[in-house]
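input
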Amino acid sequence: MGVKLAKGGFVRGGSKKLFARKLRREMTDAERRLWTQLRRHQLAGFRFRRQFPVGPYIVDFMCLEAKLVIEIDGGQHLESASDAVRSGWLEGEGFRVLRFWNHDVLMRTRDVLAVILDALASVCPHPNPPPQAGEGAEP
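output
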């Protein structure tokens, strides 16, 4: 018996990794736009992974350190019961799930990044906080 994935279809056994690789090669425009901002520790020094297997699912983006999952949804996800089940399972495993519409990622990228930064700040302190007033200054 296969495992149902939120992106559609079933994956059998060890082929979930292969399916995740396929999803990495075939990212949507919105996923590609967000990935250019998340990759290589660019967002506040946090490491993100894309199309990452978690339990029975493959999530669009994940920061393991902050236990933060980011999902980019198109119109087919409007009022999706399976998305609610998926988010519930991930939250039950201790992850925080942020969902954004494709349109918002493409047209309001800075706003989306600000929401992600706020979520990261609420979970993990900044890895390299700036010096407080007076600290680090030469006398």
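quick obs: The domain at 3-123 is CATH 3.40.960.10 (Endonuclease; Chain A).
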